[in-house]
Specification:
Length: 185
């Protein structure tokens, strides 16, 4: 009985320590959840507050994006831009991807490459015709039996793998790509 009396305070201290630790963990998790919710709301407010930039203006990332209708994509490029971003000319199509529009029905004589990724694939800091996807387009070598290569740059600075996969799911069928290049950093 005497040993039980000595062990009881230690056991109570252990139980109290575990309960206190779990309470702190719960409180911390709730604080993080509230912060994440506020941050999401801030993104909505910040992006919706910005007006589309004027053609030729120097812009920041916040000015070239808009909120996406796809929850897992979060944001996407604004359509019909012609601006200077990161020191280089950036234009976007009516569909909201970097570069010129592509024809709806892909001609049989065209080999279409779709690129998905973040700022590297996007070509941040280089002009539209200097991105490595743009360098792949045009008349080609014998590899493709003279087919015209057309590229579609769906990359957006800051995208992660989830955003890239969702963008590809949402747009790939309409684009009918022959090849998809995925850039992962």
């Amino acid at each position: 009985m005497n040993g039980l009396r000595r062990a009881l305070p230690v056991a109570l201290l252990i139980v109290f320590g575990i309960a206190f630790g779990l309470a702190l963990l719960e409180a911390g998790t709730r604080v993080l959840a509230v912060q994440a919710e506020r941050q999401q709301g801030r993104l909505d407010r910040d992006v919706s507050r910005l007006k589309p930039p004027q053609p030729g203006s120097v812009v920041t990332l916040g000015q070239i994006i808009r909120r996406s209708d796809l929850a897992r994509v979060v944001y996407e490029l604004r359509p019909r831009l012609d601006v200077i971003f990161a020191g280089a000319r950036l234009s976007t199509s009516d569909a909201g991807h970097r570069g010129a529009d592509v024809v709806g029905q892909k001609p049989i004589s065209t080999f279409r490459i779709v690129g998905i990724g973040d700022s590297y694939m996007f070509g941040q800091g280089v002009a539209d015709d200097e991105t490595y996807l743009a360098r792949l387009s045009g008349p080609t070598v014998d590899l493709l039996s003279g087919r015209q290569v057309e590229t579609v740059n769906l990359a957006v600075p800051g995208y992660n793998t989830v955003m890239e996969v969702e963008t590809l799911r949402a747009r790939a069928e309409a684009l009918r790509p022959d090849l998809v290049l995925i850039e992962i950093v």
